[in-house]
Design goal:
The structure holds two protein chains of two kinds. By secondary structure, chain A is α/β, with parallel strands linked by helices. Chain A is built from eleven helices and 14 strands. Chain A has two domains: 164 residues, Rossmann fold (3-Layer(aba) Sandwich), CATH 3.40.50.970; 128 residues, 3-Layer(aba) Sandwich (Rossmann fold). In chain B, a hairpin with a 2-residue loop joins strand 4 and strand 5. The longest helix of chain B has 22 residues. Classes of the chains: A alpha/beta, B alpha/beta.
């Protein structure tokens, strides 16, 4: 176990909701660039836009419960040179307003930043309607769109600041629940880059968002089984860092992907597409399997749907055993 | 461009624009006829009198912004832009052809001067609201934002979401022009999905409402001047237009919403336009 950015993940890690990092990043971006404006659809505290709203009330726009309006007003603001961040729950934006995003942001090439909070089953008690699982797939198919899923609040803060000077449309998904903070201020982040968070030689665990922590937690049990796992964190699902992923796979020859969303069309889909064309190796995809979530405690839901370190380790074990 | 042309000159321009709409639609072999013909007077008034713009510098920083929400009516905008000097009229014959800048529905990235990409209905008012809001934030309210929408697309909830926001933020630098021609693809608007009482609806949403004859160029110019004089709220002009205006067999007929004239129909239409439906002798005769 070498080259971790977090050397000892067994230690008690600080936990913080990923969306908190977004809130801090947006405030900082607002200070750095007066073109940054923020729009929210009646979820200002939940999506952590409140810090920005308090600091820059004249650059904050409350659109009410109207997600189609959220992104189209954002597009209009971008037409006057603004750098709009628009936020809601991912289930509603980009869940409800896909066509407006497609036409007025992507085809129109406006640099609107769509922030979807409360993605994944870890939303918990609110149930299936609010647990967005299809957002990565929905956004990934759009030309001109960039898709980002940070692994923790520190990375979300960096991603937000990077997005504020990024000239293309982008979608960033955030989780609701407190998530272990595995990166530090020194951990590199660049839009479009994947990072090897832990080096290994037998299997590549290619993960995004909250599942990167789970992959890191799977290293130890796999090590005990004599399997050396490499964790490749993919915060930018599109454009995919093909070079970094193919480099890891060329070494390990086996892959497990993991994400807190539908395995079809999400990161798992993206990796399968890449490898099937360039380097077909055995692959297992951890994610939601053509089903919706339900109410419950975040931890029990993750366990129930198999979105845990244990399941990642099991899949890695199977893929290594098979080959 | 305000006041550069007399009303009579503008009327002649509108007729010439109608003729080019017929020619380009016939050549394209697909496209919408009724809406663009009905909107010719409004677009003539906008580009030759109302808008602050520079055809030679489409990105001019002080320009007014015009959003065409009902993107399917873009033939009237293409023709008017060509007449205003944005590009050569010969390019009009490339409408809807492979490689053309004149896409079937307008694309900002293809054609300079096209403020936004549109086609899917109902998102123009909210985009224009965003523009008006951005200009207000920049204390640039001397620049005006105009949005042309169809009446049928007021079926879309997004239209009214935008209307609410414009009202909330008192976007008096925003003028919406509703092409009230009473038709949509499936038939008369009041059969497909009743819109009336449209004036009361807009007023209830907090807008200043002006009703005009949208085929009267002077009324369009005056209506926009009145709209710009309203300081406490956004204004909407309910512009009653005749769909297919100027061509007898197209007027008021919803079947002409989404189809182009064939060669014979175009010939007949051009004859009607040139002779003002037989009232005058055409120059070509």
């Amino acid at each position: 176990m070498s080259n971790h950015f977090i050397v000892n993940i067994d230690a008690k890690l600080e936990e913080e909701p990923i969306r908190k990092g977004f809130g801090r990043g947006l405030l900082e971006a607002g200070k750095q660039n007066d073109k940054v404006v923020a729009l929210c659809a009646d979820l200002t505290d939940s999506t952590q836009m409140s810090l920005f709203k308090e600091a820059f009330p004249d650059r904050f726009v409350e659109v009410g419960v109207a997600e189609q309006n959220l992104v189209t007003v954002g597009s209009g603001l971008a037409a006057t040179g603004k750098m709009p961040f628009v936020s809601s729950y991912a289930a509603f934006s980009p869940g409800r307003n896909w066509e407006q995003i497609r036409t007025t942001i992507c085809l129109n090439d406006r640099p609107v930043k769509i922030i979807g909070s409360h993605a994944g089953v870890s939303v918990g008690a609110d149930g299936a309607t609010h647990q967005m699982l299809e957002d990565i797939a929905l956004m990934r198919v759009l030309p001109n769109m960039t898709v980002i899923a940070p692994c923790d609040s520190v990375e979300a803060e960096k991603a937000t600041i990077a997005l504020a000077s990024y000239k293309k449309p982008a979608y960033m998904r955030l989780a609701r629940e407190a998530t272990p903070v595995i990166t530090t201020v020194k951990t590199p982040f660049e839009i479009g880059k994947a990072y090897v968070f832990a080096e290994g030689k037998d299997v590549s665990l290619i993960t995004t968002g909250t599942m990167t922590y789970q992959a890191l937690a799977a290293i130890e049990p796999l090590f005990k089984q004599g399997i050396s796992a490499e964790v490749v964190h993919v915060p930018t699902i599109k454009p995919l860092d093909e070079k970094a992923i193919l480099a890891s796979v060329s070494k390990t020859r086996r892959v497990v992907t993991a994400e807190e969303g539908q395995a079809v069309g999400g990161l798992g889909g993206a990796i399968a597409e890449l490898l099937s064309e360039h380097d077909p190796v055995p692959i297992k995809r951890i994610g939601m399997r053509d089903r919706f979530g339900e109410s419950g405690e975040p931890a029990e839901l993750l366990k129930h749907f198999g979105l845990t370190a244990k399941q990642i380790a099991l899949a890695a074990y199977q893929v290594v055993e098979k080959t | 461009m305000a006041g550069k042309f007399s009303v009579e000159q503008l009327q002649l321009k509108a007729e010439a624009i109608r003729e080019d709409i017929i020619r380009m639609l016939e050549h394209a072999g697909s496209g919408h006829s009724a809406g663009p013909l009905g909107l010719a007077d409004i677009f003539t008034a906008l580009y030759f009198d109302i808008l602050q713009h520079d055809p030679k510098n489409p990105d001019w920083a002080e320009r007014d912004m015009l959003v065409l929400s009902n993107g399917h009516c873009v033939p009237v905008r293409y023709v008017t832009m060509a007449h205003a000097g944005y590009f050569d009229k010969a390019e009009l014959m490339t409408l809807r052809k492979f490689g053309s800048r004149l896409q079937g529905h307008p694309e900002r990235l293809k054609l300079p001067g096209m403020e936004t990409t549109s086609g899917p209905l109902g998102s123009g008012i909210s985009q224009a609201s965003g523009m008006a809001l951005g200009l207000k934030m920049d204390k640039a309210s001397h620049r005006w934002v105009y949005v042309v929408t169809s009446d049928g697309e007021l079926d879309e909830g997004n239209s009214w979401e935008g209307a609410m926001l414009a009202s909330k933020y008192k976007l008096n630098n925003l003028v919406a022009i509703v092409d009230r021609n009473n038709i949509q693809i499936d038939g008369p608007t009041e059969n497909v999905m009743p819109l009336e009482d449209l004036k009361a609806k807009w007023e209830a949403f907090g807008w200043h409402v002006i009703e005009i004859d949208g085929n009267n160029i002077e009324a369009v110019i005056d209506g926009c001047a009145m709209a710009r004089a309203i300081v406490e709220k956004p204004s909407v002009i309910l512009a009653h237009t005749v769909p297919g205006k100027g061509v007898d067999f197209m007027e008021y007929d919803f079947h002409w919403h989404g189809k182009p004239p064939n060669h014979e129909e175009a010939k007949k239409a051009l004859h009607e336009l040139r002779t003002l439906k037989g009232k005058i002798k055409g120059e070509h005769e």
